Amino acid sequence: MPNTTKKWIYSLVDLLFPRLCCACGERLAFGENFVCASCQLQLPLEVNHDWRYNRRRVIWSDHPQLVRMGALTRYERGNRASMIVRNLKFRRQYELGSWMGRIAVQRLKESGLFEDVDLLIPIPLSKRRLHSRGFNQAELIARGMAEELGIPVRTDVLKRIVARESQTHFAIQERLGNAENVFKLMSSDGLQGKHVMLVDDVMTTGTTMLGAIEVLEVIADVRISTFTWAWAYMPPPVHA
Ligand SMILES: [Zn+2]
Predict the structure, then answer these.
(1) CA–centroid distance, residue 150 to ligand 1 (Å)
(2) Structural domains in the chain?
(3) Is residue 18 within 8 Å of 32, Cβ to Cβ?
(4) What is the 22 CA–ligand 1 centroid distance (Å)?
């Protein structure tokens, strides 16, 4: 089909069903998907990008199996990064999740964040939350990343459970001050000696991520890295 015809059809469809940018809400132009070119240029990028030694990593230095921690964007209320997450979670834009994962890998591949990572594990939702939302946004992002990286996504490893189901885990979580982020190791098959990357949409204090790390680090010789689409908070600098 000639390009002019395609554009004409696009204009007609766009008139009836306008496609909007997930970050600014303006109409998308022909050829743009999910996020307009202008918003892509102005994404609030996370700059604390020394993966091995960023402040979170320093604070969690009592987890020697933790290798790198990275995020693409900085989350602030109402900014472009947060609007994209909002569209993903509450407007059920499934394809957007995959786009977020792909763009993150494309933008950060050179940084070495994903180097020698063997597989991706999205942070699971509890059964109840999954049922009410209908999808796990972390998994959608992980699937997009996997496409770019050519590595598998494992959803059979971690399970998120309600606190009262496990006294041991409850104790850990209570110590961390959050009894809702309880994970259980369902399978460690094929994970020995591997470098796994936990994936989530937003990291605030990191309690959720830490809960998952603590469950995974019992696996022999496993190395763990984390990726989140956005960081909502960065701990203050640590002075030696
Ligand atoms: Zn936009």
Answers:
(1) 29
(2) 14-43 (no CATH), 45-231 (3.40.50.2020)
(3) no
(4) 7
pLDDT tens digits along 82-109:
999 999 988 878 899 999 999 999 999 9
Asked whether the beta carbons of 31 and 40 are under 8 A apart, the reply is no
Q: Is the dihedral of CA 211, 107, 112, 150 positive or negative?
A: positive
Could you tell me the CA-to-CA distances from 234 to 40, 44, 178, 203 in Å, in that order? Answer: 23, 14, 19, 9
pLDDT of residue 163: 55
Q: Tell me how far the alpha carbon of residue 185 lies from the centroid of ligand 1, in angstroms.
A: 40
Q: How remote is the CA of residue 3 from the centroid of ligand 1, in Å?
A: 24
CA pair distance 87, 84, nearest whole angstrom = 5
CA of 105 to the centre of ligand 1 (A): 20
CA of 58 to the centre of ligand 1 (A): 35
23 CA distance to ligand 1 centroid (A)? 5
Can you tell me the distance from the alpha carbon of 174 to that of 77, in angstroms, rounded to the nearest whole number?
A: 28
CA 78 to ligand 1 centroid distance, Å: 13
Express each pLDDT in 8-34 by its tens digit: 777 777 777 788 999 999 999 988 999
Retrieve residue 148's tokens.
């770019």
Detail the DSSP E strand segments found in the chain.
Answer: 66-74, 119-122, 158-161, 182-185, 195-203, 223-231
Q: How far is the CA of 30 from the centre of ligand 1 (A)?
A: 13
Residue 15 Cα to chain centre, angstroms: 33
Q: How far is the centre of ligand 1, averaged over its atoms, from the C-alpha of 25 (Å)?
A: 6
